[in-house]
Design a protein that fits this description.
alpha/beta; TIM Barrel; about 10% strand; eight-stranded parallel beta sheet; 12 helices; globular; about 300 residues; binds 2-(acetylamino)-2-deoxy-D-mannose; binds pyruvic acid
């Protein structure tokens, strides 16, 4: 099919899934969340039900309901809503893809099946081809996140196969530190999108030619990261490095504390004033509210709050 050649520029926030204190999906806050991203963070694209959104821990019905809500409230506020439809079950992925299409999503994305894994790149492409075909009118993005899926093919090679076999193939969401593979993809597949996914080293990806990035920190460090993008564009490398370093120090602090997704949700709540709730089991943290003061003082110290 023919695409308009639209390329996603700039930041894409990988949204958290707001939950109630009992870990049920909390739909009424989605409108405020979208407004916060657009108005406070100047982020105009979202990636929903992905890693950050705990997509793999949600039921198919919950994912559908969330998709509907995100799309409804993004109208006029977001340029792109990409819906992650990856599942272990091909049938569920196809169901979610068709649903995303019927709701008016701007694109779909899928990870590789990660329990029984494809035994070679061709098997993976055949799986993705079926997912993409269930929403053949939508751009399809392969979600490369080898550390979590354990599926570690080189994207430079896989992009060629996807281009050949998947008519709606539009690009890759590239969440890996391998900048050589990333750079090879960007330069070989110039009309495709290769969105970078490791927020810690986005500046390195920019140096390779990145045009867009998807990440969890853009939910709350979107405006900070946007400053890095402008500095880089203006050729002020020193300023861009300073900003990247601040983000890295912040993430180092978070990882040194042994924190993960539940705490990322807390941090988002703290920034946005919107209660993201806890993460689903098995990730739910018991520390919750105790984090807030520690995080607040650290963020203030770093001039990030
Ligand atoms: C594993 C994971 O969640 N990766 C995210 C996106 O792909 C990133 O945005 C990270 O959350 C971020 O780079 C912090 O490590
Ligand atoms: C970060 C990201 O892209 C995701 O949460 O899926």
């Amino acid at each position: 099919m023919a695409f308009t050649g639209r390329r996603i520029k700039g930041l894409v926030a990988a949204t958290f899934t707001p939950m109630t204190s009992r870990s049920d999906i909390n739909l009424p806050v989605i409108q405020k969340y979208v407004e916060y991203l657009a108005d406070e963070q100047n982020v105009r694209n979202i990636f929903v039900n992905g890693t950050t959104g705990e997509g793999m821990s949600l039921s198919v019905q919950e994912r559908k309901t969330l998709t509907e809500e995100w799309i409804k409230y993004s109208r006029g506020k977001m340029d792109n809503v990409i819906v992650h439809v990856g599942c272990l079950s091909l049938a569920d992925s196809k169901d979610l893809a068709a649903h995303a299409s019927s709701c008016g999503a701007d694109g779909i994305s899928a990870i590789a099946p990660s329990f029984l894994k494809p035994s070679n790149p061709d098997a993976l492409v055949m799986h993705l081809k079926e997912v993409a075909a269930a929403a053949s009118n939508l751009p399809f993005y392969y979600y490369h996140i080898p550390n979590l899926t354990g599926v570690k093919y080189q994207m430079y090679d896989l992009m060629g196969k996807m281009q050949k076999h998947i008519p709606s193939f539009r690009g890759v969401k590239f969440t890996d530190v391998n900048l050589m593979d990333y750079s090879l993809c960007l330069h070989e597949y110039k009309t495709f999108e290769v969105l970078y996914g490791v927020d810690e080293q986005l500046l390195g990806a920019l140096a390779c030619g990145a045009h867009g990035a998807v990440g969890s920190t853009y939910n709350y460090l979107g405006s900070t990261t946007n400053k890095m993008l402008s500095a880089f564009e203006k050729g002020d490398l020193h300023k861009a490095q300073e900003i990247q370093n601040t983000v890295q120090k912040f993430l180092l602090f978070v990882f040194d504390m042994g924190w993960g997704l539940p705490e990322f949700k807390d941090i988002m709540s703290l920034y946005s004033g919107i209660d993201m709730g806890p993460a689903r089991l098995p990730l739910r943290s018991s520390l919750q509210s105790e984090h807030h003061n520690t995080v607040k003082s650290e963020l203030k110290r770093m001039d990030l709050l």
